[in-house]
Amino acid sequence: xxxxxxxxxxxxxxxxxxxxxxxxxxxxxxxxxxxxxxxxxxxxxxxxxxxxxxxxxxxxxxxxxxxxxxxxxxxxxxxxxxxxxxxxxxxxxxxxxxxxxxxxxxxxxxxxxxxxxxxxxxxxxxxxxxxxxxxxxxxxxxxxxxxxxxxxxxxxxxxxxxxxxxxxxxxxxxxxxxxxxxxxxxxxxxxxxxxxxxxxxxxxxxxxxxxxxxxxxxxxxxxxxxxxxxxxxxxxxxxxxxxxxxxxxxxxxxxxxxxxxxxxxxxxxxxxxxxxxxxxxxxxxxxxxxxxxxxxxxxxxxxxxxxxxxxxxxxxxxxxxxxxxxxxxxxxxxxxxxxxxxxxxxxxxxxxxxxxxxxxxxxx
Length: 364
Prior knowledge:
Layout lengths: L1 H24 L1 H10 L9 H11 L8 H13 L3 H9 L12 H11 L4 H26 L2 H15 L4 H6 L2 H19 L3 H6 L10 H13 L5 H17 L2 H8 L2 H11 L1 H12 L3 H22 L9 H21 L10 H17 L2
Helix pairs in contact: 1-2, 3-7, 6-7, 7-8, 7-10, 8-19, 12-18, 13-18, 17-19, 18-19
């Protein structure tokens, strides 16, 4: 028995070694083989390795965020340690390039070890891919065997709200989104308060996540109410309150320079006009994709909650439904002053709505 266990361990280790060798010969074949055998965690190492290669050789589209990050990386590389430290410490001052700690710290670390901008993108790709894999594995661990077999492809689609190219090109928000969603799910599955606290660090990756974090805090406070229908009532009151809130007046009341600058940059007429012109150049299938999942979920989630269809539920699906409605409210609120591309809060609703459907399908 002991000898057979040793043999199995040796075979797994040996297969992984062969796959790593194959990666250096043909990264694409090794990557697809690792995907095909995704359930074998031993092979998942290949996926971040491929992500590094993809990030290192990444070719951006014209006028993308890539150019802004490249310029900032080059400017950071000309600073000494003390000046770079001051730059990072004063991230919430007006006039800085980024009001977040994540990108400047990671960039300057790569600069200190002598890495190029392409190397930085490779490291960013590893971090982003690791978060993706962590979310997938977390949900798989919570799933039944039936769910894993029947809805695995659907699960992968749920998690890939932002593709790897977005995690490399846009860096901050997609990374903050995944980081936040991972610890939100950790809290949802365990009810351990520490995961809500850790989720707050996503605001240091991208400041705009602060709205999503406020919604998570509200969800936590709803836990003190035991009556499910009372929770739903509070959620709808919250939605009505958001509808009456003026973001500009609220920012003046808060008096935070970084927040004011962020809102101003996303709401000035020239910015909105340029973004709308940009969307007009998209191919038709890209424009459909932008809203397809959103409207699909609005209809599907409503159907699942109607008594007519008598679908089973659970405490987990009830929690995911409440969270989905909270983030839908946040999305609709931001629709009033953000353009269609900038309202990335819609993606929180889409992500949670799809995870809600995944677990609802699994018990019906």
